[in-house]
Write a structure and sequence with these properties.
Radius of gyration: 32 Å
Distance between the termini: 89 Å
Number of strands: 12
Number of helices: 12
Order of helices and strands: EEEEHHEEEEHHHEHHEHEEHHHH
Structural class: alpha+beta
Length: about 270
């Protein structure tokens, strides 16, 4: 005999479950069984059938509006809450006088506590607005203090450190970079200024660092054995490659690349 579909044990159409009155069955966009409900607030919405029946879903999403209006979250006071059809939105005023609109769940989870006037929030905004520079800051600190970092041996292991101001916070590092012309593709160099002063480049700080392009940074690295003047001499020299290698204490491939103008380009 053909199998017959079992009727709903608890007829749900017309029933009211919490704030939702069930009007009819439907299919949600993902194909899951759903119900069309009318909420006590007046909204008519589609909800997952099993979620409503098990009382996991209790309203159209307007519950927060009743609970949050007038409440304080950090520096924010909720003026009103409303549903935009997908989530509950809260309009708030901050103690500093600014207004902010955000997801109500962000307030209840304490991920936001002000309009952005706190340094902590400012730091988070800058972090996401300039992710590349934030990664530069993280990498600078890691190679100076993380013994497992691939570059620790020639940085932290050699005594290179980050100044206290930059070590503690990304914000002063970010502000210094912006004032000194940093842009994507540029690099932070800690060797050029100390070389001019006759000092070892062992400190990342506003006084000892400058912003340069990748080529300038590579040419001023402590691992670089040549200067621009020496590279010009090699390019114009009539000596053999073997003699140049011995004179400048560099490899054959480096000599050949300089002569072909592949590196130390003019």
């Amino acid at each position: 005999m053909p199998r017959t579909k079992k009727p709903d044990i608890e007829p749900i159409i017309g029933r009211k479950i919490n704030k939702l009155t069930i009007l009819e069955f439907c299919r949600l966009d993902n194909g899951v069984k759903g119900v069309i409900c009318k909420c006590d607030c007046g909204n008519v919405v589609k909800k997952n059938y099993y979620s409503v029946k098990s009382q996991y879903t209790t309203s159209c999403g307007c519950n927060y509006r009743l609970n949050l209006t007038g409440q304080r979250f950090g520096k924010l006071i909720v003026l009103e809450c409303y549903s935009n059809g997908q989530k509950t939105v809260a309009n708030c005023i901050c103690d500093c006088g600014n207004y902010r609109t955000c997801d109500a769940t962000v307030l209840t989870s304490k991920r936001v506590s002000c309009c952005g006037c706190n340094n902590g929030d400012k730091k988070r905004r800058i972090k996401y607005l300039n992710r590349q520079l934030y990664e530069v800051w993280k990498g600078m600190k890691a190679r100076c203090r993380d013994e497992n970092h691939v570059g620790y041996k020639i940085y932290g292991g050699r005594g290179v450190r980050v100044c206290e101001e930059w070590e503690k916070s990304f914000l002063p590092f970010y502000e210094w970079c912006m004032k000194n012309g940093w842009e994507p593709g540029k690099q932070i160099d800690k060797d050029i200024i100390p070389k001019k002063l006759g000092l070892p480049g062992l400190l990342y700080s506003p006084e000892m660092c400058c912003i340069v392009d990748r080529i300038t940074n590579a040419r001023n690295s402590r691992q670089t054995k040549l200067t621009l003047e020496q590279a010009i001499e090699i390019r114009n020299s009539n000596l053999s490659t073997k003699e140049l290698c011995k004179k400048y204490n560099i490899g054959k491939s480096t000599i050949e690349k300089i002569k072909k103008n592949q590196i130390w380009k003019m």
